């Protein structure tokens, strides 16, 4: 049996028996009926924009909260079930059709939330807290009350919601379905794009280079529809942002992420200050691979040192053991994931590239990844199980209380990565330590340096999209410029990756600036981990409480619970200094003079 064949595919049995199936159809029709009833009640209650309301509105608000929570609870397993098919088999026609049906239902659910948001702008929110349901949802209510000041007219908001199915939603689905079916010709062999990209981790330089060159050619052949999707999505985002009165897309995204501009700027400033160190790492890696100067992009993920091959079953056991060393609760989560087959691990034709974790039921998740027998994939498994642990900590919250912004959503995942990385680095020596150092720095370089390049790219695309559409060539030029500004002489300028805008699915599934939350998650998690190492007593309960509260407070307030000021550049620089120490160790270990 091949290594790929022995990897698990996820079990969807706790959700529904199949697609199509009677139990799934009944659940979807029940959700549609609940939507019908909710729309009628919202009409009857007068939930929409309009003039200021007088009198006690607390009971009506609580009814809206209860109704929206119930609808989201019903919808989540239905949507997750279909998405599980779509992301693992792009040719599954029944799933593709069903996803289109769900898109219409999702729009209706979103419109109810939009109507409630507009209605909250008409009431005195301070009068709502006498009702315990409202008090328990104070943060999402206050946030929507603020958002109501940045809304178009009710008719325009309804139209925008309806059109999203045929506009942004359609372009997002096109990217996902189209990109997952792209085939790459590598020296006479036809493979999926996800398979081609896994060859970037191969030990053979010729294999890496051939895959890289073939990948770029494949993106070039398929660039037109992907560029069209980018233009449509960023154009729609910019247009609607302006119509709603935001100063910029970034301001809107920061609001949605419960994050201040001061915190973002402090973090990005600290990251920029660290770039010289990362360029040292990249040149040292080039030295380890046998050449001088900047690293070639196709060697970014090349293994160095004598890394052990980690087969999937070993990775599962290793992650569980390290999680359990932190706490039994975290170890039990990893054990349950393995026993109940939460993970779809192997790359294959028609399966989407990358990795993600989705909550499907309270405290229950499913994880997609494209596993390779290297430490980087072990780290990815720990990362996604970190998301699952976060979902577990949120299990007792209602859907409205669970609305976690992306920066805080990445905290648990990177904290779990840090657990296994620090454990491994403390146990290995020699060439094996070089391999683990490289695997960890490789990922962290992506989060600090490459994420900044993606931020610069998206910022420029959104700015220029206001004047006209951008050609694929212009998108490539913007991406190349962003890579030069961030990687600098750490990369060979003749061997960059101008099509990273086509590679990353986040550009096509989010309204804008998906990128910086990953840096926030890494550096915030490192700060928390440092606190755990210095003061482990009582940390576990405080940490779990933080994870359970990520939808209830602004990021700055949650950070203050641990004495962290995220608007102070010094905090971010402190986290980055931990990574600089690892870079120094790597440079010394490979004998580079950079």
Number of E-state strands = 5
Q: So what's the overall shape?
A: globular
Main pleated sheet: 3 strands, mixed
* Secondary-structure-derived class: mainly alpha
Note the run of SSEs as H and E.
Answer: HHHHHHHEEHHHHHHHEEEHHHHHHHHHH
Relative strand content:
under 5%
Distance between the termini: 45 Å
| Spatial sequence of strands, sheet with the most strands | 3-5-4
Considering DSSP H and I runs of 4 or more, what fraction of the residues is helical?
A: 55-70%
Question: Total helix count?
Answer: 24
- Gyration radius over CA: 24 Å
Are there runs of 5+ residues with pLDDT below 50, and where? none
Structural features, described:
Helix 1 packs parallel to helix 3 (about 95-120) and helix 18 packs across helix 24. The chain has helices at about 20-45, 60-90, 95-120, 130-135, 140-145, 155-165, 170-180, 195-200, 205-220, 225-245, 250-255, 260-290, 310-325, 330-340, 375-395, 405-410, 410-425, 430-465, 470-485, 500-505, 515-535, 540-550, 555-560, 570-590; strands at about 185, 190, 345, 355-360, 365-370. The protein is mostly helical and about 600 residues long. It is built from 24 helices and 5 strands.
